[in-house]
Design brief:
Two copies of one chain form a homodimer. In chain A, about 35% of the residues are buried. The first copy, chain A, has helices spanning about 1-10, 20-25, 30-35, 40-55, 65-80, 80-90, 100-125, 135-150, 160-175. In chain A, helix 1 (about 1-10) packs across helix 6 (about 80-90) and helix 4 (about 40-55) runs parallel beside helix 7 (about 100-125). The N and C termini of chain A lie far apart (about 55 Å). The first copy, chain A, is an all-alpha fold. The longest helix of chain A has 27 residues, at about 100-125. Chain A folds into two domains: about 1-55, Arc Repressor Mutant, subunit A (Orthogonal Bundle), CATH 1.10.10; about 60-184, Orthogonal Bundle (Tetracycline Repressor, domain 2). The interface between A and B is large, with 43 and 43 residues.
Chain lengths: ~180, ~180
């Protein structure tokens, strides 16, 4: 059922998504769907949650730069599939639906926990300067990948991803991402 | 007519957009609309083009960093309006329509010309290292802003925008954005 939900979300988006269609696709009676997931938001949340749990696991290679490179490559691999691309686009364009927006936010916050902790550890251990704005570093990296893919239609190679990470990490290492900037 | 087109695009998006509704809104007979803009793509293209021409003009302050800060602030100001936000979101989510995708691409390429030339000049004059990947720098900056706004729901302050530009420019200045990276 969750599998059919993801397929249908990728196909038609959240607005046009109907629980009846999904029940039909999965060969399940709709009352048994409603019993388990009373609303469209419940069903969508459960399906996206399962997908998020099984992907984008943050690695621990011993170096924050290569951890982040791995994370970005995994995200790139998701974008390379038709379903992944449609789901990420749906989440980016979620504007009109506050309930989808709330779902996406809670998923994102869960998924950000691990990379944020790793970046905070890197700051604590001196791999990145004290005062580095971890949230800004993360959203600059993810934003660069999303922009490259959704706006420039480029699915970045491994080499290109390294370059993106170097650009942002070199900036962070020289203090560019600090909240309060020392005079230069 | 172009004004009514932008309002309607922001309201319903490209998919649901109808030339009849716009003609009605603008108090114009639909045949006179079709005479000038035979298709929905023609009308949308003309309206977005006019909007793009009047906004996001790249400044020349003498320093590439402050030019880019100004550009990012202007983009932020567009996102701060309901219409600008809806139009940018529509362009980001343009996936299902190849004709809208083609329009958005051609607009984007026109608008990127000036910042790209300015960045290339900065490389030529030694403000940025030789070999800096200008396209990557630009899409990292714009991507960071889009991610912060559309994913994290943060409309960045002037200070925050400076910080974003510092992060990316410090990285570029230390060679992080170079296509071929010197061994460290």
């Amino acid at each position: 059922m969750l599998e059919a939900t993801l397929e249908e979300l990728a196909r038609v988006g959240y607005g046009a998504f109907s629980m009846e269609t999904v029940a039909e696709r999965a060969g399940v009676h709709k009352t048994s769907v409603y019993r388990r997931w009373p609303t469209k938001a419940d069903l969508t949340g459960a399906a996206l949650q399962r997908e998020a749990d099984s992907t984008l696991c943050f690695p621990d290679t011993g170096s924050i730069r290569s951890d982040v490179v791995s994370m970005m490559r995994e995200f790139r691999n998701i974008l390379a599939t038709h379903r992944g691309q449609s789901l990420v686009r749906m989440m980016l364009a979620e504007g009109p639906s506050p309930e989808l927006a709330a779902l996406v936010d809670s998923l994102r916050k869960k998924k950000e926990k691990e990379p944020k902790q790793a970046l905070a550890r890197a700051v604590a251990q001196g791999e990145l300067p004290a005062g580095t704005d971890i949230e800004l570093v993360l959203c600059t990296l993810i934003g660069a990948l999303q922009n490259l893919y959704f706006v420039h239609h480029e699915l970045p190679t491994d080499r290109r991803i390294e370059q993106m990470v170097n650009l942002v990490f070199d900036g962070a290492c020289s203090g560019g991402g600090c909240r309060v900037r020392a005079a230069k």
